[in-house]
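help with this.
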Amino acid sequence: IKDKSHLEVFSKKVMILGGEGVVLRDPKAAYFTGRSSKAIKYKAYLDDECRVEGIIAGKGKYKGKMGSLACRYKNRLIRIGTGFSDLERSDPPSVGTLISFKYYGLTRMGNPRFPVFLRERYDEKLHQ
């Protein structure tokens, strides 16, 4: 990879061919397996919005807090259960709130793959 624009072009080609992303390695580092700062994953993601329709109680370490949100997304009900801080789990977005989330493509069923909460859409609340 020569520069950031080359990375963007290359990673798009990989994704078009069905790949998740690419691994960027330090060319001077010896080959190894496992995680390291010498090799990082680069995955492009998409983002969108959905409306909260329900709050699902947490289990285990999230008992007594929100576990995930049930959200309406393009006439489907999806769950988003990651990307939340402990504070957000204690005081989750209320039913009816529009939220932004990121995801990594769509499943065969057309659902967002690995949806991750990003933020509440406060600007949308101001314009209601």
